[in-house]
């Protein structure tokens, strides 16, 4: 059992998990509605919307679990999230037609107070700050 | 939508948000009154979703029906889940967790208002 203070799911990490949870819900629900009702209109945008939802769910669950293995998965999810918000954000600026408010990442998340842009940065900072102190010891996933 | 209820939800959610931030900044865990208040916010939010759902069943058609129904369902999930998460590890951060959920309820109600009035 690792020291509680070193886990991603304690202290400020609980707030981070809560915010990730809200976005998991928002992105997944939004993608679900889009795929169910208007998939043919913009399949690429709506599939990316679904990817965003999955990434947020993965980040929420892995940060909430806070084990070593899930920390690694969390890092991957958050890096994908960061790449996603930067790529989709930029793409939506150059080709607004393709993303009519279609994903949580459109306009760098401007429809959500730019939280989607800040969240992965906070996530990565938190992962490095909450790193277990016995990190040099033998790794057990 | 249901203006009176929506304004009530937004006002209560705003207070719950501020309360969570306040206890966190005072380095206190949420107290019992705060939890009960969150439950009240949840009850009024639930009433809003039920009334809006009944109106839809009776033929009201907001601009984006599927999205609206998604919001009406998702909005009632937030506070209970956040409360469980906040109280399973009580600290000053529990208040911020409640504040995040309450603010989301506020934002979603605003969005619901827009969705609802956009159609008529």
Structural account:
- The complex is a heterodimer of chains A (141) and B (120).
- By secondary structure, chain A is an all-alpha fold.
- Chain A has helices at residues 12-38, 43-65, 68-94, 115-129.
- Helices cover 65% and strands 0% of the residues of chain A.
- By secondary structure, chain B is mainly alpha-helical.
- Chain B has one domain (3-116).
- Helix content of chain B is 83%, strand content 0%.
- Chain B contains 4 helices and no strands.
- Chain B has helices at residues 3-25, 32-57, 65-87, 92-119.
- In chain B, α1 packs antiparallel against α2 (32-57), α1 (3-25) packs antiparallel against α4 and α2 runs antiparallel to α3 (65-87).
- Chain B is elongated and about 50 Å long.
- At the A-B interface, α1 of A face α3 and α4 of B.
Topology:
The complex is a heterodimer of chains A (141) and B (120).
Chain A: H1 12-38, H2 43-65, H3 68-94, H4 115-129
Chain B: H1 3-25, H2 32-57, H3 65-87, H4 92-119
Helix pairs in contact in B: 1-2, 1-4, 2-3, 3-4
Any descriptors?
heterodimer; A: 141 residues; mainly alpha; elongated; disordered N terminus; B: 120 residues; 83% helix; 0% strand
């Amino acid at each position: 059992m690792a020291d509680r203070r070193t886990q991603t799911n304690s202290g400020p990490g609980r707030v981070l998990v809560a915010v990730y949870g809200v976005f998991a819900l928002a992105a997944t629900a939004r993608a679900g509605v889009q795929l169910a009702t208007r998939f043919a209109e913009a399949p690429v945008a709506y599939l990316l919307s679904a990817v965003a939802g999955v990434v947020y769910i993965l980040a929420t669950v892995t940060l909430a679990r806070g084990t070593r293995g899930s920390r690694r998965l969390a890092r991957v999810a958050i890096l994908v999230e960061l790449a996603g918000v930067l790529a989709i954000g930029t793409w939506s600026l150059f080709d607004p037609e393709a993303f009519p408010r279609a994903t949580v990442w459109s306009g760098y998340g401007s429809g959500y107070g730019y939280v989607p842009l800040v969240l992965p940065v906070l996530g990565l900072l938190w992962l490095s700050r909450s790193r277990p102190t016995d990190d040099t010891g033998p790794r057990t996933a | 939508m249901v203006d009176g209820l929506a304004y009530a939800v937004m006002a209560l959610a705003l207070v719950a948000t501020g309360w969570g931030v306040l206890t966190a900044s005072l380095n206190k865990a949420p107290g019992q009154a705060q939890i009960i208040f969150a439950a009240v916010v949840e009850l009024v939010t639930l009433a809003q979703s039920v009334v809006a759902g009944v109106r839809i069943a009776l033929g009201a058609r907001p601009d984006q029906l599927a999205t609206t129904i998604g919001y009406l369902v998702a909005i009632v999930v937030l506070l209970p889940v956040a409360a469980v998460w906040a109280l399973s590890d009580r600290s000053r951060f529990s208040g911020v967790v409640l504040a995040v959920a309450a603010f989301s309820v506020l934002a979603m109600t605003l969005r619901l208002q827009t969705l609802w009035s956009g159609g008529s």
